[in-house]
């Protein structure tokens, strides 16, 4: 997953125009010949990696641009060729994390036909992502205080794909009729807290019984058959007799949890 | 709920010994005669209220002691009679929020016999708490970056009472046999995300359909009857035939979600 995002770097937000318009050569320790543009991208990636480390260790407010450029191995002035301020490299990291997480979830659940299987795979994929990307997890959470609007964008963007997948599953009778946005935030919150309690605090995936409990509660919670006093929804016909039936999305993209890896420029672009 | 916590102020953490040992008179605008001890508590409460506002508006790292004392209407030096540093008044606010929330939940669910009713009431009580105490919600979340250990303590303490209530409900057959800690964090995460999305972002309680979706998924998810392929647990006898049956807590305290309002000194006491 990480490889994918490295080979196709996320299109830049506000920082990108600085790179494209100025595109200056800067001190570089690269050995192989490279065009100024390519060197620029490498330097930008190095700055982002260094910033991710420094923000995670020291927090946004304590972190300094001097420390970021020191770890990236570039002169302090080079920073400003890519990012106008500490806030902007922080925002770019949040956008990158959002993109990487949604792409990772999409790749994991796209081949899955049944939403109920997708819920388990989605949870496990999210927890693995948190384990591999602990730093970015911290960065994203601090975002609430650095840029509240971007923090909301992060959750709204994640919820959009979730809502789409749930609506499709409701239309197919795999999930009973519920408010899809409420259900999406409910499930996101559950996954995030489990990720915090086990993956983030203990730096390990949760024990099997924790995963089984969470998956079991979700599957029973959303299962049309779990409603003994209500008629069981028949797959493919549930739209007809349930209140609030959602738009029937084309079934061509089952379980698509996240939009594709399109370029992103954040909520203000 | 808030009145209750005002009339019985939370026992102090590390800050308290400063008050008790020094207990000096300080400038006060109180008109009625009061002992030095009582004036001290009033001043301490004023400082806490001012700090809550300033932290919520400016964030911990930008907030200054000068601004806190200005809003509390006391001289800047007075601050140090009660709290050794900005970090300490912040920690005291987090402990106070933890205490107030657990007490509020306990008072709401204590009279409820059936855990399934307690889940709905607990969720609604939590959301009302967030609406009334928006500032403290922000403060508690920033705690992850100010004092990670205290942040964990906050969730562990909340989970403890939740686990106790769930174990009792499992023993009574109201909730099927699941990992109680996993279930507690799952439910806490779901409530927190719903609180963020509606109550915190939009400064209002969620619409009825959101509450109904969340409660419905929880109740179906935990209901022993929602498991058509497993024997239904009979109330009062479920401990005998279920794997992992928890300690049978005495049924004298049904639905007790939170420990009582005992003095607290935080995770380091």
Short structural summary:
With 269 residues, chain A is mostly helical.
How does this model look, in words?
Chains A, B: Residues 1-40, 225-269 are annotated as: Disordered. Chains A, B: Residues 41-101 form the HTH tetR-type domain. Chains A, B: GO terms for molecular function: DNA binding. Chains A, B: This is TetR family transcriptional regulator. Chains A, B: It holds the Pfam family TetR_N. Two copies of one chain form a homodimer. With 269 residues, chain A is mainly alpha-helical. Chain A folds into two domains: 2-84, Orthogonal Bundle (Arc Repressor Mutant, subunit A); 93-241, Orthogonal Bundle (Tetracycline Repressor, domain 2). Chain A contains twelve helices and no strands. Chain A has helices at 2-7, 15-22, 36-58, 65-72, 79-82, 86-109, 115-132, 134-146, 148-171, 180-202, 208-222, 238-241. The radius of gyration of chain A is 21 Å and the shape is elongated. Chain A starts with a helix and ends in a 28-residue tail after the last helix. The model of chain A is unreliable at 1-32 and 228-269 (pLDDT under 50). Chains A and B meet through α8, α10 and α11 of A and α8, α9, α10 and α11 of B.
């Amino acid at each position: 997953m990480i490889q994918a995002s490295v080979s196709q770097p996320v299109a830049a937000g506000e920082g990108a125009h600085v790179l494209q318009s100025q595109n200056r050569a800067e001190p570089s320790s690269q050995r192989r010949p490279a065009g100024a543009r390519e060197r620029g991208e490498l330097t930008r990636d190095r700055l982002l990696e260094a910033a991710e480390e420094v923000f995670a260790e020291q927090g946004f407010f304590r972190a300094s641009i001097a420390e970021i450029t020191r770890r990236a191995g570039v002169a302090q002035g080079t920073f400003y060729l890519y990012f106008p301020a500490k806030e902007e490299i922080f925002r770019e990291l949040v956008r990158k994390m959002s993109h990487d997480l949604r792409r990772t979830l999409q790749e994991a659940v796209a081949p899955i036909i049944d939403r109920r299987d997708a819920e388990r795979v989605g949870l496990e994929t999210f927890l693995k992502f948190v384990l591999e990307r602990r730093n970015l997890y911290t960065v994203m959470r601090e975002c609430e205080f650095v840029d509240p609007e971007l923090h909301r964008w992060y959750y709204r963007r994640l919820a959009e794909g979730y809502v789409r997948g749930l609506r499709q599953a409701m239309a197919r009778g795999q999930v009973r009729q519920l408010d899809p946005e409420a259900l999406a935030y409910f499930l996101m919150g559950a996954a995030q807290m489990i990720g915090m309690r086990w993956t983030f605090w203990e730096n390990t995936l949760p024990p099997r019984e924790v995963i089984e409990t969470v998956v079991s509660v979700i599957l029973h919670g959303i299962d049309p058959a779990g409603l003994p006093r209500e008629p069981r929804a028949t797959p493919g016909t549930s739209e007809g007799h349930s209140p609030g039936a959602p738009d029937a999305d084309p079934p061509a993209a089952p379980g698509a949890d996240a939009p594709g890896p399109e370029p992103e420029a954040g909520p203000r672009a």
